[in-house]
Amino acid sequence: MMFSREYTGFFIDGAWRQPSGSDVFTVVSPSTGKRIGSVPAASTADIDAAVEAARRAFYETDWPHRPPAERAALCEALAAKIHERKDDFADLLVDELGCTRALADVYQAVAPTLHWNYNAAVARNYNYTEVRTADLGPLAGGSAGGMIMPYGTQSLVVKEPVGVVATLVAYNFSLPGTAQKVAPAVAAGCTVVIKVPEPNPLAIFAMAELVAEVGFPARSDQHRGRRSGGVGAPGQPSGRGHGEFHRIHHHRFADR
Question: Which residue stretches does the UniProt record annotate as biased composition, category Basic residues (predicted)?
Fold first, then answer.
């Protein structure tokens, strides 16, 4: 069964939520010039809702404190779902991205499964605590008036999820890029807000359908579209920066 190509809401708080406005992105195939679908355009209120849902998930649920193996199992379940639908993803990516079927088959529709499985394995085997022994000399810091640290001083380093992660995905590798950014954040116990690329958002919306099927906890993953030039509707840029507006703890951009 093909994925829907007409979306009317955003995946926020574990469910599909109607947008606060009526603006939409019309998706046009670059290879044919024909309309192939549409998604809603997020307003400031929609983005606020997604970010607040992600913050509640991080601070008010047990998601960041769950055993890594539990989060890894959900990542693996999503990887399996994506693999089952790889042909449907390939069909969709050929249309909305304009890539060849060969590229869709060998990379665009396959890489997401690899990213989710890889990060699940990392989550299962990662060393979240580490005892570090100082190898500084006995006068370290002393010349600057600081504390003199003796040899062999030990520190316990605990690695914890940072919080809400905002991901901004490039258009040319939209589905692999989303998995590359979202999978490590979710596996680590973070919650995520995804800014989809305007020219080709459909594959990411389709992935959200599978997130819902797998049963990730509500609020762990949010996504929305946004007009270029501002976080509001077309012609209404808010002027608020990503960090101050969203209260985001970490950003992952298209090239990182």
Answer: 247-256
Q: What is the pLDDT of residues 100-122, one digit of tens each?
A: 999 999 999 999 999 999 999 99
Model pLDDT for residues 5-24, shown as the tens digit of each residue = 999 999 999 899 999 999 99
**What pTM does this model have?**
0.82
> Per CATH, is 11-135+161-252 categorized as 2.40.10.330?
no
Contacts of 37 (CB under 8 A, 6+ apart): 4, 5, 6, 7, 26, 27, 96, 202
CA dist., res. 243 & res. 251, Å (int): 8
Owner of token pair 């995946």:
11
**DSSP single-letter state for residue 158:** E
Report how far residue 216's alpha carbon sits from residue 115's, in angstroms, rounded to the nearest whole number: 17
